[in-house]
Amino acid sequence: MRPLLLLFPLLALAACNANQPAPDVQIAQPAMEVARVAPREAPEGGCAGAIARYRSIVDHDAATGNVAAGVNAQIQSEIAEATRACDAGDALRAQYLLRASKQKHGYPQG
């Protein structure tokens, strides 16, 4: 009999709160600033296109703070070397230099 007497007040309290609306909880969202970088028009194929796409990705990462300034300078130097090879007609060397730079800095190949 005693457990039944203890259960009754608990059920009465649960019934009192059952019809109450849940309190409105508002979570403050942190202000985020998104850097907008206009994509460069890249030539469709060949080493010039691959260089332009890689440069565009790196520029975006640098603008959004995902690449440190020193690393960005190193990547830009590597891109410039690939550009010189491409401009000289050595597409294979340009592709090799791009692939090496991407691998070194953790960018996906492709």
Spatial separation of the terminal alpha carbons: 75 Å
Major β-sheet annotation:
none
Q: Which oligomeric state applies? A: single chain
Proportion of β residues? Answer: under 5%
Integer average pLDDT: 81
Question: Structural class, from secondary structure content?
Answer: mainly alpha
Question: Low-confidence parts lasting 5 or more residues at pLDDT below 50?
Answer: none
Over all CA atoms, what is the radius of gyration?
A: 30 Å
- The number of helices is 4
Which descriptor suits the 3D outline?
rod-shaped
Order of helices and strands: HHHH
Tell me roughly what share of residues is in helical segments. 55-70%
Secondary structure tally: strands = 0
In short:
The protein is mostly helical and 110 residues long. It has helices at residues 2-18, 46-63, 69-87, 91-105. The longest helix has 19 residues, at 69-87.
Description:
The protein has 110 residues and is mainly alpha-helical. Helices cover 63% and strands 0% of the residues. The chain has 4 helices and no strands. The chain has helices at residues 2-18, 46-63, 69-87, 91-105. Helix 2 packs parallel to helix 4 (91-105) and helix 3 runs antiparallel to helix 4 (91-105). It starts with a helix and ends in a 5-residue tail after the last helix.
Please give a handful of descriptors for the protein shown.
mainly alpha, single chain, 110 residues, 4 helices
Task: Provide the fold topology.
Layout lengths: L1 H17 L27 H18 L5 H19 L3 H15 L5
